[in-house]
């Protein structure tokens, strides 16, 4: 019987800059990015046309799929929120106190939300002007 795909052995660098990572995968991905950047710098009109049409094609093909999946996910979350037994589920061992208080937990969620918003909009707002 074949092993699952997750048990695939990937050769990783033992030392150096790529320690713990696959050198082949890193260099291949860097090469693709460099090739795309050089293509866009040397032939900007060609790159704009090809990448624009590729972007439009992806949006055209997956737009309905994305909307349907988000709708199913929202419906699933509403069902989970409406079921009373899901709120009584304990995450951890029986009798064990939570690691964080409710105030700490809400503070961490608020901070994470602010951090995501700042990281996204700090780069998006200057570009959108």
What percent of residues are in strands? under 5%
SSE succession: HHH
Roughly what is the average pLDDT, rounded to an integer? 88
Helix amount: 55-70%
Which residues sit in consecutive blocks of at least 5 with pLDDT less than 50?
Answer: none
Characterization of the model:
- With 129 residues, this protein is mainly α.
- 67% of the residues lie in helices and 0% in strands.
- The protein is built from three helices and no strands.
- It has helices at 23-42, 44-82, 102-128.
- The longest helix has 39 residues, at 44-82.
- The radius of gyration is 23 Å and the shape is extended.
- The chain starts with 22 loop residues before the first helix and ends with a helix.
Q: Which tags fit this structure?
A:
single chain; 129 residues; 67% helix; 0% strand
List the helices and strands and how they pair.
Blueprint lengths: L22 H20 L1 H39 L19 H27 L1
Helix pairs in contact: 1-2
Describe the structure concisely for a colleague.
The protein is mainly alpha-helical. Helix 1 crosses helix 2.
């Amino acid at each position: 019987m074949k092993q699952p795909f997750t048990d695939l052995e990937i050769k990783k660098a033992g030392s150096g800059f790529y320690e713990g990572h696959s050198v082949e995968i890193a260099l291949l991905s860097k090469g693709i990015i460099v090739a795309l950047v050089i293509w866009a710098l040397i032939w900007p009109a060609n790159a704009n046309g090809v990448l624009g049409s590729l972007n439009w094609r992806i949006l055209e093909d997956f737009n309905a799929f994305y909307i349907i999946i988000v709708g199913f996910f929202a419906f699933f979350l509403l069902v989970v929120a409406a079921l009373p037994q899901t709120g009584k589920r304990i995450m951890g061992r029986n009798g064990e106190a939570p690691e964080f208080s409710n105030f700490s937990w809400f503070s961490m969620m608020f901070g994470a939300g602010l951090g995501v918003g700042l990281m996204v909009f700090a780069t998006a707002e200057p570009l959108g002007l």
